[in-house]
Specification:
Belongs to the RecA family. RadA subfamily. The chain has 12 helices and 21 strands. The protein is of the alpha/beta class and 470 residues long. The strands form 4 sheets. The chain has a 9-stranded mixed beta sheet with strand order 6-5-7-8-4-9-10-11-12. The chain is globular, with a radius of gyration of 27 Å.
């Protein structure tokens, strides 16, 4: 009897190795390689197997139908999904343990079940545990159908015989196919189970939610091919110490990417936050040094958040840099530009930066607000509490324009801000040097700057490199 063949697969990136080794050469992770049964050999060419079906091509020009949407009646979830759920679509939801993934999906299916058939299949909890959570959220009278199962063969047979309109699989790492010898949660099992469930959802036309675990780096565990198979990838973010939760779309075939939905964790589950800017600024104290309001964009939505900075003398030879909610490399760049282009001596200080409220800011338009917060803390002079700031900083110290400036300014004016610090307008392309029209926002005074030196001049003298050396 021939010996069954095996292969060694990295559980972090899916790379295949001929033998076991401690470190994966594909992703650099340690102790992630496990032995799995090798799949059966396939024909080397497509023509080596049975004959295929001839494809029918259609012209590109033609009427395209807009996919119908199924409203979940949770406005923030519908916004992130692009306006609602599309029949036959697959959505992958990832997030840290205990962040609220199961709670959100249980609330969504409870709202949808009043108008359509919804099933919730749990592989991690027993039915009684799901019922207890539903009772705590006040959803125990909802007609959601529950099941506890981990066998994909049983799930596919059940859903194929009586397909629902919405199905939730919580979580995909607990599912297994009995045709594979590997354990649940391995790369081969996650890939195969996802493929079977997504293919069934597209064939039967029901919306499928897959809950995915995340790694210590915050990315969804398992092979990246799983994110390519689904139509929408949603990340549930939030700090344990904050009540706010951010649902962010990083991929969406039926809507905009980088769209966010904001929720607040309450005793009755997740509540929508209709005006996140007001909530993020609710605890802000005016006239405090090291604080600046940044007017940012998250998808199509303007969001105002408070950026806090603390610059303090360091007692060590290597100053500390601690960042929460922003890119550490971006902070190092802003500090380097302040020192090299403006002559400020901030490199020998400890620097702490925080985006208040638990939101993670990723756009470079926050550079100017971060620089203003750093200068405010270094000089102990507060930024005007009535001012909103945005702009990108280049390596030569220039302040670059950013997209959707008028939308940011309108949001600032709506929240009662009377002053804004923005990048200087640039000439229109091909206009012969003619400047773009200045945005006119009622009740808002817009101040433009073109270089970081203009921002430094707004604060009293900061210790220079020459002064600190004396």
């Amino acid at each position: 009897m021939p010996k069954p063949k095996s292969q060694f697969v990295c559980q972090a990136c899916g790379s295949i190795h001929s033998k076991w080794q401690g470190r994966c050469e594909g992703c650099g992770e340690w102790n992630t390689i496990e032995e799995e049964a090798a799949p059966e050999a396939q024909p080397k060419t497509a023509s080596g197997g049975r004959g295929g079906r001839k494809l029918d091509f259609v012209p590109l020009r033609g009427e395209a139908t807009t996919p119908p949407r199924r409203q979940t009646h949770i406005g923030e979830l519908d916004r992130v999904c692009g306006g609602g759920l599309v029949p036959g679509s697959a959505l992958l939801v990832g997030g840290d343990p205990g962040i609220g993934k199961s709670t959100l999906l249980l609330q969504a299916t409870a709202a949808l079940a009043r108008a359509m058939r919804c099933v919730y299949i749990s592989g991690e909890e027993a039915i009684d545990q799901v019922r207890l959570r539903a009772a705590r959220l006040g959803l125990d009278d909802s007609p959601v159908e529950l099941a506890a199962a981990t066998s994909v063969r049983d799930i596919v047979a059940t859903l194929e015989a009586d397909p629902p309109e919405v199905a939730v699989i919580d979580s995909i790492q607990t599912m297994f196919l009995d045709t594979l010898d590997s354990a649940p949660g391995t790369v081969s099992q996650v890939r195969a189970c996802s493929h079977e469930l997504i293919r069934l959802a597209k064939r039967k036309g029901f919306a499928l939610f897959l809950v995915g675990h995340v790694t210590k780096e915050g990315t969804i565990a398992g092979p990246r091919v799983m994110e390519h198979m689904v139509d929408t990838v949603l990340y549930f973010e939030g700090e344990r110490g904050h009540q706010f939760r951010i649902l962010r779309a990083v991929k969406n075939r039926f809507g905009a990417t980088d769209e966010i939905g904001v929720f607040e964790m309450t005793e009755r589950g997740l509540a929508e936050v209709l005006n996140p800017s007001a909530l993020f600024l609710a605890e802000r104290r005016g006239n405090v040094s090291g604080s600046c309001v940044f007017a940012g964009m998250e998808g199509s939505r303007p969001v105002l958040v408070e950026i806090q900075a603390l610059v303090a003398p360091s007692g060590f030879s290597t100053p500390r840099r601690a960042v929460v909610g922003w890119d550490t490399g971006r902070l190092a760049m802003v500090l380097a530009v302040l020192e090299a282009r403006c002559g400020l001596a901030l490199g020998g200080n400890d620097v702490y930066l925080n985006v208040a409220g638990g939101l993670r800011v990723g756009e470079p338009a926050a550079d100017l607000a971060v620089a203003a917060a750093l200068l405010s803390s270094a000089t102990d002079q507060p930024v005007s509490a009535d001012m909103a700031v945005f702009g990108e900083i280049g390596l030569s110290g220039e302040v670059r324009a950013v997209a959707q400036a008028e939308v940011r300014l309108k949001e600032a004016a709506k929240l009662g801000f009377g002053d804004a610090l923005v990048p200087r307008r640039q000439p229109k392309p091909g206009s012969g040097g003619k400047m773009r029209p200045a945005p006119v926002i009622e009740g808002l005074q817009v101040r433009e700057i073109g270089h970081l030196q203009d921002l430094v001049a707004m604060f009293p003298p900061v210790p220079r490199r020459d002064d600190s050396a004396e």
